[in-house]
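Subject: Protein record for review, amino acid sequence with backbone structure tokens
Concerning: The relation between a protein's sequence and the shape of its backbone.
How to read it: Take the token row as a discrete description of the fold.
Enclosed: The protein record, placed directly beneath this head.
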Amino acid sequence: MTYEQFQTTLVKVKRSYLFDRWVTGRDATGKPSSPIELMVLGAMRHLGRGLTFDDLEECTAIHEETHRQFLHVCIEWGSNVFYDEQVQMPRSQAECHTHRNEFDMGGLTGAGFSTDATNVIMWKCSHNLKQMNSGFKQTQLARSHNTSVNHRQKILWSARGHPSRWNDKTLAHHDEFLVSL
């Protein structure tokens, strides 16, 4: 993520009422909340690189429990607000045609996006779900998300997570975007 992308995301986070506790809040002693910039960076490091909350506390001098609580709010915001802003499925034939240029130039006339399964590792999983989420391609437990993208760094669609045991054909069968095409 570039610095400009981070700044844009930070502005969106600051505007969301979900983060009011960290943007304008104070604790019981009147001390201002932890810097929202460090909280957002911490959440990105946790999700993107797997840093533990203890690691984040060492990096930012902000308690690990504060990072944990912020991450839960951040995931809710990402799932319900940010996702809808960033991921926009084409709804008509005309919208699909706007994504075709790079494929046409590459000799794939008529194609408008690439689709593949993306596996997201699950660090913790209840015992009764281990069998379903242990795939044949990796050793870690994971959830699979069918994701469709164009060649302009735009995500057109990402299906909700499914068991990583499912193969690509099963994922495609349960993918709302692919089925609608």
Observations:
- Residues 75 and 91 are 26 Å apart (CA to CA).
- The first helix runs from residue 3 to 15.
- DSSP finds nine helices and four strands in the chain.
